[in-house]
Amino acid sequence: MSSERILVVEDEAHLAEVICDNLVLEGWKVESVADGELALEKLLSDPPDLVLLDVMLPGIDGFEVCGRLRASGSRVPVLFLTARSGLDDRVRGLELGGDDYLGKPFELVELIHRVRAILRRSAWSATPSPVGDTLTLGEAVVDFRTYDVQIGDRHLELSQKETLILRCLAERPGEVVSRREILDTVWGYDAFPTARTIDNFIVRLRRLLEPDARAPRYIHTVRGTGYRLTP
Amino acid sequence: MNKRSVGVARALRLYVAIVVAYVALIGWWVYFFSTQAARLQVQLDGTGRALDAAQLEVLHEIADGDARMFLFEGSFLFLLLLSSVVLIVRASRREAALGLQQRNFLSAVTHELRSPLAAIKLYVDSLLGGRVSDEKAQRYLRHAKKDVERLETLVEDVLTARRLDEGRLPYHHEPLDLAELLREALPRLSAHYANGFGDLQFVEEGAATVDGDRAGLLQVVDNLISNAVKYGGESGPVELSVRRSGARVHLAVKDCGPGLPPGGVARLTEPFERGGDERVRTRPGVGLGLFIVREIVAAHGGIFRMSSGGQGGTGTTVTVDLPAWEGELP
Question: Could you tell me which chain B residue has the CA closest to the CA of A36?
Answer without folding.
Answer: B280
